From TrEMBL:
Alphabetic keyword roster: Cell membrane, Membrane, Transmembrane, Transmembrane helix, Transport
Family matches, as Pfam families: MFS_1 (PF07690)
Predominant subcellular localization, coarse grouping: membrane
Major facilitator superfamily (MFS) profile domain boundaries: 27-441
Name of the molecule in the record: MFS family permease
Record organism: Microbacterium foliorum
Ranges annotated as spanning the membrane: 65-87, 99-121, 133-155, 176-194, 200-219, 250-270, 290-311, 323-342, 348-367, 388-409, 415-436
Record-linked SUPFAM superfamilies: MFS general substrate transporter (SSF103473)
Membrane topology, from the record: Multi-pass membrane protein
Localization per Swiss-Prot or TrEMBL: Cell membrane
Amino acid sequence: MSTHHPDRSEGFTPTGTISTSANRRRVVLATVVGTTVEWYDFFLYSTAAGLVFGQLFFAPAGPGFAQILSFLTVGLSFLFRPLGAFLAGHLGDRYGRRIVLMLTLILMGASTTLIGVLPTYEVIGVAAPALLILLRVLQGISAGGEWGGAVLMAVEHAPRAKRSLFGASPQLGVPLGLLLASGMLALMALIAPGDAFLEWGWRVPFLLSFVLILVGHYVRKKLEESPVFLELSERKEKTRAPIVQLFRKHALLVIVAALVFAGNNAVGYMTTGGYIQRYATNPDGPVGLATADVLGAVTLSAVSWLLFTWLGGWIGDKIGRRNTYLVGWAAQLVGVILLFPLVNTGSVGLLTLGLVVLTVGLGLTYGPQAALYAELFPASIRFSGVSISYAIGAIMGGAFAPTIAQALVDATGGTAAVTWYLSGMTVVGFLATLLLRDRSGIPLGPDNEAEQSVSPIRGLARA
């Protein structure tokens, strides 16, 4: 560790004043609320894609292919997440984390609200799926830019000994967003069951996004900029072309970090991507449960995912990010193996149990991710590094996981192949984690760029 400069990001502003606990609480609140709204919007689409979009926007393709097309639109947005990450990475490393958080929140909310008023194929023909895809692409760009800014605001404001726990705060937005999205759709399935849900009930949660965006904007506009970025600005050390520098010096690290997330993301998108919801409610399938029951089970599993994500962040500060991940991968593999045997019983209780068990590993491999990623990259290109690694990992992992699962079931007539696929992705995440050194507690400020630039990949001296 460098000894000639203090790391002023560790609880200090560039002026040398201590970052107060009140300011840190505001950061935690702002990142939790903002990411919850973002992921509510994103997962709302994914769940609706499993339940209604196939019938409403892709019906002419036929029942089976219409559903595959619907899931493909979920994955399509992931292809644009790197674009959002590139744009946000450049803006975040050049102009600050805060401005990116405001822009992504507004873009996501506007796209989601417009989906709520979009006419169906029956009304405007092929323009309906075309507009739906366009709005989903805008959601993908927003999601690609949101995550990096949120996690860096949380981690760079955190005390060194609590980075993983603070970094878990924006991670909580994922299960909270899923909980809110599933809960709202479950409520509307009860208020407007059957044809009413298909006609108008599904639209209400999308329109609610307009209200949530106002709440998120109000909370985030009071947020102070990251102390690391303020220090870079004060010293005029911002990188002119951060993305070029990232790939010139750290391309392999980006791929390894992306593979770590891919192992978690592929499994998580069984619910956040809407696949389990569709599989378990399909009246022509082997399970055939009521929509409200399945959405209720997903909502309960989101609560357990929330708890284990927080626990993963807390444990990450106790035993290190890497060790927490390794425990999480083992737990995730158990959850993957048990998932479909429990779902296929047709019991709502056992379906819920399977989803809850799955969230143990998902939480333990998601809670410490913000701290792990932030500690991998040098300060001057950190926003680009974490955002692009996350976006690429999402493409490798969750982008087409529902589509792949649907295709495997259609081809084999069962779910065993899906279990093998998800198990393989879990092993990929485990192996990628083994390649990384644990850098828990490494100084994050620009005074320590030389130390941060030493490659965390085992066997490499420098990136």
